Amino acid sequence: MFPSAKKLLFASCFISCLGVSIGSPHGHYTPPKLNPLTNLFPHLTFNSSYTEFFGGPNIRRSNDGSHVDLSLNKYSGSGFFSQKNYYYGFFSTAIKLPPDYTAGVVVAYYMTNAGIFPHNHDEIDIELLGHEKRKEWVLQTNVYGNGSSTGREEKFYLWFDPTEEFHEYSIIWNYHHIVFLVDNIPVRELNHSEAIAGGYPSKPMSVYSTIWDGSEWATHGGKKPVNYAFAPFVASFTELEMEGCIWNQTKPVSLCPKSGQAERLGFDPIDGERFVSLSQQQKMGMEQIREKFMFYSYCGDTARYSVLPPECKEKKVGHSQFEKGNREMKGEDLLPAMSKILRH
């Protein structure tokens, strides 16, 4: 997230982002072929759907608005956000990450309502954490609900080089569940249940894309800060998609009527069958990714939680996966939870 906003402080537990001990992921894993959800939605232009967030000179867009470059230099990062707030839906972008030495750099695609609900905000994060030379980018997913100061992190290595070409990063968010997808493959599902209760994001949110300096925590817990000799760091965004219930601030929050999107697109991206539950193929694909590439889950972190969050009992994630991640970090110490990270 963009770190200069001063309204909220959050605590997070971060693990050193080291190389993949299971071997280089590039070329050694063929992901399952699933029906792509991103093919169902129209691509949006920047001018029609987004506006600048910060770092104006570091934002460059194509003439037709279909492609946006965000850069980070020693003066500023940059970012943009949606003109509308959404209450549930499908949100996606394709990102190409900066190459070479990128330790300390954070590229984020996320949803938040901190500006509207500063004391009880919700947030759904996809954060891509930079690397040293010969190290890999790390995908971190996170969920905050109703002003929670503690996130629900899960971390993954990627099975491709995210700097060579564009890859799709997507979020399904509705009353039933939150799903994080990479190239249309689910990597994480958080079900809406009694166990998670008020910790489930349930208020309208905007969509943000940013690049910023995460030197304090992003790589090896802050041991590897951004080296601006390699700047500018440029992250490219395209295939912008947002399809959901647009929130009208003059009316109470309520579920979207089933007309609208369903009539225009031929299906419902909020309550439609493809979006309220995962298919058996999607579940199998997600299990493969989690088994091969997930190296941290908050649900296995007994050092952080003396009592694990109640929703963890519903998940097939336990202490063994946390130990697996610990071993894969080649002896590096697990870092304690950070108590003060500026978020907005």
Quick recap:
The protein has 344 residues and is mainly beta. The chain contains 5 helices and 17 strands.
Structure report:
The chain has 344 residues and is mainly β. The chain has helices spanning 46-49, 260-265, 273-276, 280-293, 319-328, and strands at 8-12, 50-54, 59-61, 67-72, 78-82, 86-96, 105-112, 123-129, 138-144, 154-157, 167-173, 177-182, 185-191, 206-213, 233-246, 294-297, 338-343. The strands form 3 sheets. It has an 8-stranded antiparallel beta sheet. The chain has a 7-stranded antiparallel beta sheet with strand order 3-4-15-6-11-12-13. A two-stranded antiparallel sheet has the order 1-17. A hairpin with an 8-residue loop joins strand 8 (123-129) and strand 9. The chain is globular, with a radius of gyration of 19 Å. Residues 2-24 and 323-344 have low confidence and may be disordered.
